[in-house]
Amino acid sequence: MASKAPIPFSDPPALMGLPSPYFTPSHLKWAKAIRPFITENLHSLAIESEQSPTATVPESVFSTFAKHHMLIPALPAPLPVAWLKKLGIHTLLGGLKVEDFDSIHGYIYSDEMVRSGLAGPPGSLTTGIAFGLPLILKFGSPELQEKIVPDILLGTKRICIAITEPEAGSDVAGIVTTAKKSPDGKHYIVNGTKKWITNGIWSDYASMAVRTGPPGSGAAGISLLVVPLKNHPGVNMRRLKVAGQISAGTTFIELDDVRVPVENLIGKENNGMKYIMTNFNHERLAVATGTTRQARVALSAAFEYVMKREAFGKALVEQPVVRHRLAKAGALLESLTAWVEHFAYLMTKLPAEEADVKLGGLTALLKAQAGIVFKECADTAVLLFGGNGFTTTGQGMIAESEFLIFSSGWMG
């Protein structure tokens, strides 16, 4: 009996069996190994978690991912092999050796994590470790790494990255949260606020941008500190109500005379802006990958719907205007996918220091283009679902939720 044909646009071409210049047998084996695990342990709960009154993924999901070392692939490649082997972690799912993990394995993981169409549930698990830990691994002292890294890699503690502030927004050089040394020189005293901090509410630590330079020092006066959060004196956190990624734990953090040991400084004082920028390629590629998958989920759901929905005596897909709209969005989607995969490939070939310089601007364009294509696919899905595209339950729910993200301006 012939197998059922896959829905068009439901997976990247390489995962639909087409040849790829980038995917090796190792990459395809990895994709096959992680899909059932992520489907069973995350996607089966994604919609319920996003729509529940608490909008929270069960804590057991994080524990399961930590137990099976499935938070680690959120880190940029190459992985911290020495640390992982020191902790007894030699392989990932499917027998992939940690030293063989590259940016294409990371791309496959990031894509798979968002296959439900919702970014909130996977974001609740991985955003902190993906963006908060690399700075410590790259620039933290051996003593600081010994203090923080093992618990984060093993999933016994959690971390986030805390840069954005109410006043500065995306203007990182304009942050006003201050870190001044205590009279005895043993602590930084941190005062200020952080906003839109994903995973903050659950985090034990934050890799936090603070101003150690004088007022008006701009980018040259920014440092990075590992700031204790949960149950730490002077720290107050509350969840923010947001329109997108509801279950990702977006947090407002208030810091009132928070004492942080000077040993928690990441790298050198006033070098924070330079350190932050080294994380951008990984962050932007991860965001572009997830956004591309969300676009894919919306468009393939619409394609499936119009093949079975009948109106005016025939299936909607038989209408030329419907096929044209699908084709237009599909062309944009597959072009974007090819660009994302090319970037992942480039990051397997360029040394990190060279990639930071040569790919920084282009990954910014990639992230922006992903948003444009996502909007086209979400618009198309809502249009083709008709009234069902404006329901928060049932077959049009994903299309509606993704359309809402753009209506609210969430992608910025």
From TrEMBL:
A GO molecular-function descriptor: flavin adenine dinucleotide binding
UniProt domain Acyl-CoA oxidase/dehydrogenase middle: residue ranges: 160-258
Alphabetical list of Gene3D superfamilies matching this protein: Acyl-CoA dehydrogenase/oxidase, N-terminal domain, Butyryl-CoA Dehydrogenase, subunit A, domain 2, Butyryl-CoA Dehydrogenase, subunit A, domain 3
Cofactors: FAD
GO biological process: fatty acid beta-oxidation using acyl-CoA dehydrogenase
This protein's UniProt keywords: FAD, Flavoprotein, Oxidoreductase
GO annotation, cellular component aspect: cytoplasm
One Pfam family of this chain: Acyl-CoA_dh_1
Acyl-CoA dehydrogenase/oxidase C-terminal domain boundaries: 270-393
Position of the signal peptide: none
Keyword Transmembrane: no
Transmembrane segments: none
Family: Belongs to the acyl-CoA dehydrogenase family.
Protein name in UniProt: Acyl-CoA dehydrogenase
